Amino acid sequence: MSTTRRATIPATRYPVERLTLDNGLRVVLTPDRSAPVIGVAVVYDVGIRSEPEGRTGFAHLFEHLMFQGSENLEKLAHFRHVQGAGGTFNGSTHLDYTDYYETLPGNALERALFLEADRMRGPRLTEENLRNQVDVVKEEIRVNVLNRPYGGFPWLTLPPVLFDTFPNAHDGYGSFTDLESATVADAADFFQHYYASGNAVLAVSGDIDVAEAVELVERHFDDVPARPAPVRPSFVEPDLSAERRVSYTDRLAPLPAVASAWRVPDPISDFAGYLPYTVLAEVLTDGDAARLVERLVQRDRSVTSVGGYLGFMGDPFDVRDPTALLLQAHLPPDGDVDKVLRTVDEELDRLATDGLADGELARIQARMATHLLRDTDAVLGRALRMAVLEQQRGEPGLLNELPRLVGEVTEESVRAAAATLRPQRRATIEVLAGVEQ
Amino acid sequence: MSGPMTTVSRALPPLGPTRKLRLPKQAERTLSNGLTVIAVRRPAVPLVELRLGMPFGRVHPARAAMLAQTLLSGTTTLTGVQIAAELQKVGGGLSAGVDPDRLMLSGAGLVTGLDRMLEILAEVLATAAYPADEVATERDRLVDRIQLAQCQPGHLARTALLRRIYGRHPYAVQTPTPDQVRAVRPTVLRKLHDQRVHPTGAVLVLVGDIQPERALDAAEQALGGWNGTGHVAELPATPPLEPGPLLLVDRPGSVQSSLRMALPAVPRTDPDHAALQLANLIFGGYFSSRWVENIREEKGYTYGPHSLVEHSAAGSVLLAAAEVATDVTGAALLETQYELGRLACVAPGEEELEQARQYALGTLQLGISTQAGLAALTSAYAGSGLRLDFLAEHAARLAKATVADVADAAAQYLAPARAVTVVLGDAQRVAGQLATLTEVVTEPAGP
């Protein structure tokens, strides 16, 4: 029997209004008048996995091109109009979607809608802008991958160990060769195919009046030409039946590192089967009281840090199948990766066999609730999450339910999840230190 | 799209009326032990953010870093694991960090757990034990982390720049060496804790779904008995920047160069600050700036150039940073000097200023629209002796700065002749390019 007092898991009650325009654009509105700011997000259902062979990095390169002018806007105008309204903006490319977003003072709603509608009708795809952004993307890759230790570890280096097919295994940042050979015609095709109104979701959160927002959305998006969403192919691959392990030397890395991944249930069609894995990752690695931190960092001192999460980009609730639970660790100078993996197996066994300690599950769930609520405190966090939940599940209101659903995950299901993380289903990437200490 | 377009020309919609900056409800109390507590109400989510900043100047960087690394490793009654687990029970967590000015404890949790978080915080402050085993583990981890940092170009460039601009000031070295860390023993940490972890001059900030007065009561209840008396060390003012030859730090094999510049700046309360902030935005402080448009959007030399005014207790400095392709390192420096010089010599346009002003005002609104943003700002302001109402004063100064004010600030602070410049990169490939523009001295990369 538990004698520990259990923290009550609170919930949010963000209101959700959904509508679909005649051209197929889905819209989610979630008003909250507690601060005079808004978040605007447009999410297209295309990501790294949809890139054709020979065009690695194209989804991300195209994301850059969406900022380079549109029907009624010169190059640089988008940035100036958002920031000149007191707002901030960005975009990002994921495995299964690409997002574009702004956070703005509430009086800039119509301006933001105008800007997003204009590029949804058509970005200005010119040779000059393409060449310029290929250069910029190459510098981005140098900053984040080539010129720093552990660049791309493990999000770029582990998928090719776990997966076999091009969509799941290739480098989403892209090779310089592929980037340099991209053409304006490729970009026009990509836009035509994937950036259809029927393949997009618009979400607006924050200081809005719903009726007024609906009117403004219709005013700016109604005449975006209708194009249906393309059929998304299945990216399913069979699970591993034998352990895989690959290592490489990172010439800039001073210390060894390791990451492992195991496939998990389909996050969309088997959400109930998937949720316990999100809890398991936290049981293993969230903070000094987590199992692997206590064992590997503090007791054995066989690693200096360890982290665990769902999805290669740390995106548990906005990724489709196939995806994975990942564990990654940095080791001390003479660290022994084999020993670390053996200990992980041992701890997973112990969890599967003996279950959780008194109060352990409840405190992890309380902590997860805090993280979820904190992420949605920002209006933009809410808009982005709801847009993707609408796109992938048709259920933006799930955002309100997540803390409760995480809180309802049972000890039995966490144990069962741990029991599936067997060595023969594991893919591991090992980084060998290339820098002498 | 390519091909003929048959589109209607559409006009950019105007902005709606500005919604007024409203400061949230807050309360403040200084306890008899010297601790100041500021509580701010923002009830959007049922959480509370906690920041406790303590003056921590003039502490040896190795001792300071190790104290932050081990402060939460155990007390007389709780182990480090128990501290973490007890906090988790209320959805909470705490972490410690340190810079040359302050020791900071930060965390967030369910608002229903505020009392418990404060209780644990009080226990840590009063009875942190620095257990020998945990200290040994954390020492090794910190050494590994420092070694890792020393392989990061950004860290190496910053280290070289700090040494170059601060000379003998305590800010010059902010990262200890592995050997210095290895020498820190638990007894040293306990002594340092006794001397420096005390309530005088410390500020606790609580932001969230709270009634401010009640949160102050809760803080007083938990922390009123915290009574370490010790000393607060004053830092000397930072020295003026001394421009000189460009310092080229050699990192053979780099596929990019890290360009860093330091320029003079003033504290938040200085009458020039608002105008300087606007001048900085126009130069390189946001995406729609001249520098970004030039070296990224026009020339493709770099991914994310940016500049900002960094405020520390002993002085402020304007820092500009860009990672640029090796082949265009000299060209990127040329364009940077050009943009600085152009703004310092020629007044900006009205429209350009208006755009920067709206950005500055808008991001103030955005910054205080979350609990975490409010907590960070309140705590940063408190570190400079300011309160949230300064935000309104600052907004008013931003609103009334004229083109002439901004031109004056640019001439005074952004003149390229006043810049201290450091480049980290492959010296063999970039020294020649840089030497065409300025005098260069080269040194090897290293801690």
Automatic annotation (TrEMBL), chain B:
Residue stretches making up the Peptidase M16 N-terminal domain: 68-175
InterPro entries: Metalloenz_LuxS/M16, MPP/UQCRC_Complex, Pept_M16_N, Peptidase_M16_C
Pfam families named among the record's database cross-references: Peptidase_M16 (PF00675), Peptidase_M16_C (PF05193)
Gene Ontology MF term list: metal ion binding
Domain Peptidase M16 C-terminal: 187-358
Protein name: Peptidase M16 domain protein
Organism per entry: Salinispora tropica (strain ATCC BAA-916 / DSM 44818 / JCM 13857 / NBRC 105044 / CNB-440)
